[in-house]
Amino acid sequence: MRDEDRPLSDDIHLLGDLLGETLRQQEGEQLFDRVETVRALSKSWRGGAHGDFDKLARYLEGMSAAEALPIARAFSHFLNLANIAEQHHRIRRRRAYQKEGASPQPGSCEEVLARLRREGVSAERLRKSILTMNVELVITAHPTEISRRTILHKQMDLADLLARKDRNDLTTPEKRETKDEIARTITTLWETDEVRHEKPTPLDEVRGGLYAFEQTIWEAVPRFMRQLDQAAADHAGGPLPIDCVPIRFGSWIGGDRDGNPNVTPEVTRDAALLARWVAADLFEREIEELRGELSLTEASAELGERVEEAREPYRAILRAVQKRLAASRLEIERQLDAVPAPLNGDSPYWKNEDFLEDLMLVWRSLEETGNGLIARGRLLDVIRRVYAFGLPLVRLDIRQDSSRHSSLLDAVTRAVGAGRWSEWDEQRRLAFAVEELQNPRPLIPHGIELQAEDRDVFETFRMLATMEPESLGAYVITMASTASDVLAVALLQKEAQIEHPLRIVPLFETIDDLHRAGDTVRALFAIGPYREWSNGRQEVMVGYSDSSKDGGRLAAAWELYKAQETVVAAAKESGAELTLFHGRGGSVGRGGGPTWLAIASQPAGSVDGRLRVTVQGEMIQAQFGLVGIAERNLELYSMATLDATLTKAKPIPDPSRDLMDDLASASRSAYRSIVYERPEFIDYFQQSTPEGELGELNIGSRPARRKKGTRGVEDLRAIPWQFAWTQTRLLLPTWLGVGEALQGAIADGKLDLLRELHRDWPFFRSTIDLMEMVLAKTDARIAEHYEALLAEPSIHALGRELRSRLETTVATVLQVTGREALLEENRVLRRSIDVRNPYVDPINLVQAELIRRYRQKKDRALWHALVVTVNGVAAGMRNTG
After folding, report:
1. Which of 89, 142, 165, 582 is labelled catalytic?
2. Is 142 a catalytic residue?
3. Lower Cβ count inside 10 Å, N or C end of the chain?
4. How far apart are CA 338 and CA 336, in angstroms?
């Protein structure tokens, strides 16, 4: 163990010991002894005593649900405690890098700007790139973050206590009290029910997403900006202007109606209002603190005139600002409750520019009176928050399936006697849409009778017309495949009389749609009225989830790469300004992985200073759960974007592209031969994983399937697809097909070329290294146990085949990397997985047994215990969905 990692080990041991004491005190010696017996058997099996696996399984299977539940809870709690310790250690290591005399942390503002200058980027170009950079993180609600907010809050308290413990100046009584507080917090966590007993509503999910802003992101943004500001002053020609905030935030929560009937037009309105309420509340607190600081008596004539020469002019004007923010909250509450609310006589803030105007008056006065140092404190932080968050806090995206727009237009065209939109070819649809976009008269007849689903779509557009434009972001079209899908949304926005239309973002997800993505963009910009309507800008979203489910991770990764190349080329040919929007999830199978690696491996020209990316499910907590972690992730997203923009990528030789084409084709063929062509596969999947049970848990407002009553993979959402395989530790969607593809290339004498690509091509290196990480987390023995316990014997042969393919994949990946063992060069991650395995294994064994019993009898106690195991496995596996 490296010296710098010893504090992490010490923290984990301390937390584990205190958890043990909690079990003794709260539950008694019997439970503690059982937990120790399970832990000893699990560690013994992992240490090479293979017979102890069966002993452990028999020991756990002999327990009642009431006996197994606290065992699963104990191991789940330990894994969550280890996660907290690891997150705190990341902050500790970051602080070590920031100490005087230390080398800058890789990927930090200081390291990246200094390196780019050394590599020949001029200060002027560097500054211009920072000023024009636009990174937007879009939070989404997905059923992979299953912890209750009260649990998350207590975990944050625990991280704060670990930080206090690190202080060198603690007295002996303070050390004792800190340890006691850690023990109390662990006991409180143990005594808190971690299970949601009711399915969350979309507005519950909205509140959960806003929690991250209230707790961490709000504080992290100005802290990150100070780091960037200082690095720019040192390497990019001086400090940044106060309106330069290259990172902003969006949300799908409450706007994502793709397959979620619970997201109504009213939910979307309320989601935006709730975000505005949180923003007004947070800004009001900041202004209160600012009023306390600015007790100055000297002000500019401009400010003095506004407050009629008050004795403390800054406090006077900020008091007026505070009242307007309070009025904003009251007005929002009135709209949310749809009832009159008491007004305080002050005008609410609705526009960012009005709020900024008052803040900038204070800024100018402080600068004019020689108090610029004071201005660049809390006031600067508030102003930068206005540019990053604004009064809406987050801009809400709307997402809907393309087929829903087509269905509505089909009803409209039939009603006006024009025929059926659904039966027209692409050219006729485009011609009709262009003509109607330019026609001032309404297309949709007043009082038209619509089916419920069509009415919901149109009512959504009408609701958008009534909302504040600053609260709205993009309109994302799921399963987009043609230019007419985009024009359909433009036409519906025109019909709803949306004064400030939302920009329209086609989401290309399937392999076939990715193939056509470049042609679709070309077709759009060949249409003059659309080009004018979009102001020559286009955002395109690429979906990692359904493309992986469609063709496997390797094929999807290459198709996504090529699709981005074609879209970039099409935009360049059309003279359009392009922004690529990446729909990344937590798992590698859904585009997850280290942020820097993901951005660095994108095609040349695809970033170009602009990036939009989703932060989904449990990744919100993983990346923004603590202020220090949030600050670091803001830095990584922005600096990786800057580096990718200014670092010239090497061209990819044709032989390398040809090899990737062959690998993708072979991988997709092998993947689909199992997932889509083997008749017994669906039975195997549904029987040997908790796929069906996940759909019953209260971990998301959206149904697991797009259509009711279906069984196939096609209609299953990508998240439960990945989540179910992660629970059994097989992680099949990520690696299936890769081994066969690499094995074929090696047999063709391509091993040297594969190794060269792994060494020199960021995309290929990223793809293989992420595959290696996933393979290190798999466990064939655990997956076999689920199969043996849950699946009919007639389909066990498929399980044996899948595990054989897993072995092949491990062997071929090691051949390509030239390593003897998985994660041989990532010792930190290898150790993290090895530490967790003995604690995840018992939860898996308990879960498998609970599923077996639950399928025989739908018992509430079994359900409760099953939820705990799902949470525990997710905590152990980390990037789960």
Report:
1. 142
2. yes
3. N
4. 6
